Amino acid sequence: MIPTHVGIIVDGNGRWATKRFKNRSEGHLAGSKNLDNLCQHIFDKGIKILSLYIFSTENFKRSDEEVNYLMDLFARKFKHDFKMFSKKEIRIMFSGRREPLKQEILDIIDDITLKTKDNQNGILNFCVNYGAHMEIIDACKKIVIDNNNGKINVNNLDDKLFSKYLYNDLPDLDLVIRTGGELRLSNFMLWQAAYAEFYFTDTLFPDFNEKEFDLALDSYNKRERRFGGIDYEKKNF
Ligand code: FPP
Predict the structure, then answer these.
(1) pTM reported for the whole predicted model
(2) Catalytic amino acids?
């Protein structure tokens, strides 16, 4: 089975660089280069939605030098990916809080979002300045406003309606991959990951290539997804 929505928690760029006596920026650059072939491969496999956790709200705690480097790299990469993926009819989306992103980045994000909004062959969702708690809080605030305006009736709130108030209304994640050896979610798409399968690998992100992705897919295909139910063929009372 090919999962519909895959999320990748990108981790290990810094350690990849340190192991090679390079500075952390070089790890991020290597990570961003790795994404080119990897994203192509993932869409070629038939996966429809890819969410990439590339900058959390907490990542602003890093040095100004690293944050500025990453923002410049993002700006360049988003423009590059826009050119590469718009030819393939891939829609590019962004999930995250706008503040305190710089206007230059916001303009690029808005432009690419608008220009690719009708593309039908897949979705590449960059999670930038993203945190799942914030996403849920922001959704609740909008729900309260719409309820008070009479636009919705909060008594009718269900998970389908709630999802519409998230940064993007995407189907739940089927598979979450985390590179870099840590075994945690780090505030990534908590709502969307409710029934996701998890795959953790020690491989550092710049080395997480197409072959490594296929191993994650093989592992996913060995899982039995019951969504809280029972596999009736196997039940044994
Ligand atoms: C985590 O590694 C990675 C990041 C915080 C940045 C992710 C950035 C990229 C993949 C490059 C740019 C990509 C795009 C799409 C514009 P880390 O720094 O936490 O690694 P460490 O745990 O080894 O220190």
Answers:
(1) 0.94
(2) 11, 59
